[in-house]
């Protein structure tokens, strides 16, 4: 058989697929290649021989014909006795990625098929008859394509969902839902609490329209991370059975006071509990969720270690805050502190790995005179290589702070021992800031803290006690000197 003319095909061959046609009984039978019966031929996306080919007369395409002989051009319609007109067309998709050849034949046409040139059909006239005869084949092929391919679920008053069997064989199970829409609701406003307290995070769900009878509902609570990494599992529950995870084990349980309530109760709230929580309700294959924001009442303070300014990478910054009875602050906590008046011209780490600093009064060394007040940002920094200060967050105290002094003062080691003798421990920086913020601690006497710094809190500014604004004053980290000491004792 001579090679097929190049103008019949596109250049991008898409695969090999058996050709089929109709037998005298009307059933599809495989059509072999001119060389090897039952095999495949190269196919392309569409036939380009719908009109006159370049350099050829009308009516000289390639196709299949009845009878013997190869390669001879077929005359125009009606010029050869007993030869029907052939129509070649592609059907895409599995398993129809090859050409499907169909023929309308005269009664005297033999049923042995061999390759012949395809006769292009002209609009109107006798060409309509073969096209009408092809419609059943086209309809059948389209239905098979829809049955074998995948399609998107749709909505017609009920909810549908596909369940794949993970075997890739096309056998799917379709779950039919009862038409009820699941809705989960949590409060829009933040829920406030403090360190050591108990808090309830409200969550309710309902069905639209309402559903009668008991349903096997699964509840899942998780905590969103500030750096948008994988959520932290908090609790899962089915009915009255639940399980808490990690730091929430023994502190979290589900409150189901109402019929459709899925509220989370957290006892002995800790600093790291501050953040956003997701309440997820699962009903079979349907699930919906909403987010509730838990905010601890606390204070943000800037911190730098005894070694000096900009000495902490991210991981060292986290440890530094923990050692001072605090945690590394989030952006929302820093923003809240800025809105309450915090102004600090040294950049510090935040919990999401970014480096930022709050400015209330624009000035040249702090981003320039012409920038508006706000949070200045360096963006995300390398957590190992880059070094800055840190912003820490401390909540309300669960104990008390008191001041000890001696006539001759105390060294740092003597100060630690004095607090132990009083049944307490030397206070940390976070303790002092919290006492100043929430207890109104005011002392115009400097005292040692656990990190070796010397500070004092002023709630009511006055002469000889520092600047005119309230705050915690610092003498830095003196290597020598004798001062009083601030001690902390839990209730």
UniProtKB/TrEMBL annotation:
Subcellular location: Secreted, Extracellular space, Extracellular matrix
Segments forming domain Link: 299-394, 400-489
Cysteine disulfide links: 345-366, 444-465
GO molecular function, one term: hyaluronic acid binding
Keywords assigned: Disulfide bond, Extracellular matrix, Hyaluronic acid, Immunoglobulin domain, Repeat, Secreted
CC annotations in GO: extracellular space; perineuronal net; synapse
Residue intervals of the Ig-like domain: 181-292
Pfam families per the UniProt record, alphabetical: V-set, Xlink
Main subcellular localisation: secreted
GO biological process, one term: skeletal system development
Gene3D superfamilies hit by this protein: Immunoglobulins, Mannose-Binding Protein A, subunit A
CDD domains named in the record: Ig_LP_like, Link_domain_HAPLN_module_1, Link_domain_HAPLN_module_2
Assigned protein family: Belongs to the HAPLN family.
Protein's recorded name: Hyaluronan and proteoglycan link protein 3
Gene it is expressed from: HAPLN3
């Amino acid at each position: 058989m001579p090679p097929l003319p190049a103008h019949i095909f596109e250049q991008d061959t898409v695969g090999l697929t058996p050709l089929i046609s109709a037998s005298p009984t009307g059933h599809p039978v495989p059509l072999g290649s001119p060389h090897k019966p039952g095999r495949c031929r190269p196919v392309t996306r569409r036939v380009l021989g719908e009109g006159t080919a370049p350099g050829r007369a009308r009516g000289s395409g390639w196709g299949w014909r009845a009878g013997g002989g190869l390669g001879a051009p077929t005359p125009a319609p009606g010029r050869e006795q007993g030869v029907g007109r052939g129509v070649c067309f592609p059907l895409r998709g599995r398993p129809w990625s090859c050409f499907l050849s169909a023929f309308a034949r005269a009664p005297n046409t033999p049923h042995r098929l061999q390759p012949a040139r395809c006769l292009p059909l002209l609009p109107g006239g006798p060409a309509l008859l073969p096209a009408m005869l092809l419609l059943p084949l086209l309809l059948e092929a389209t239905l098979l394509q829809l049955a074998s391919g995948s399609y998107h679920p749709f909505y017609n008053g009920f909810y549908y969902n596909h369940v794949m069997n993970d075997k890739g064989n096309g056998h799917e199970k379709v779950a039919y839902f009862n038409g009820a829409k699941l809705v989960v609701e949590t409060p829009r406003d933040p829920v406030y609490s403090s360190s050591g307290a108990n808090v309830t995070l409200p969550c309710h769900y309902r069905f639209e329209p309402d559903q009668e009878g008991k349903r096997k509902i699964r509840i899942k609570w998780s905590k969103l991370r500030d750096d948008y990494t994988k959520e932290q599992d908090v609790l899962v529950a089915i009915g009255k059975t639940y399980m808490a995870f990690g730091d929430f084990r023994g502190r979290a349980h589900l409150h189901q006071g109402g019929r459709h309530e899925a509220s989370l109760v957290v006892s002995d709230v800790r600093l790291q509990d501050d953040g956003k929580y997701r309440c997820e309700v699962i009903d079979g294959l349907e699930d919906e969720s909403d987010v509730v924001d838990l905010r601890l009442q606390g204070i943000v303070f800037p911190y730098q270690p005894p070694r000096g300014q900009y000495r902490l990478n991210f991981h060292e910054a986290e440890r530094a805050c923990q050692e001072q009875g605090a945690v590394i602050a989030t952006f929302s906590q820093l923003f809240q502190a800025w809105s309450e008046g915090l102004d600090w011209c040294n950049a510090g780490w935040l919990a999401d790995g970014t480096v930022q600093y709050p400015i209330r009064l624009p000035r040249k060394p702090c981003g320039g005179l012409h920038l508006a007040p706000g949070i200045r940002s360096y963006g995300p920094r390398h957590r190992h290589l880059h070094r800055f200060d840190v912003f820490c967050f401390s909540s309300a105290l669960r104990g008390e702070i008191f001041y000890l002094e001696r006539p001759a003062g105390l060294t740092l080691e003597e100060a630690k021992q004095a607090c132990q003798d009083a049944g307490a421990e030397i206070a940390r920086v976070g303790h002092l800031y919290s006492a100043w913020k929430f207890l109104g601690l005011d002392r115009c006497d400097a005292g040692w803290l656990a990190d070796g710094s010397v500070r004092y809190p002023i709630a009511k500014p006055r002469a000889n006690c520092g600047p005119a604004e309230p705050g915690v004053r610092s003498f830095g980290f003196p290597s020598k000197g004798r001062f009083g000491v601030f001690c902390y004792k839990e209730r």
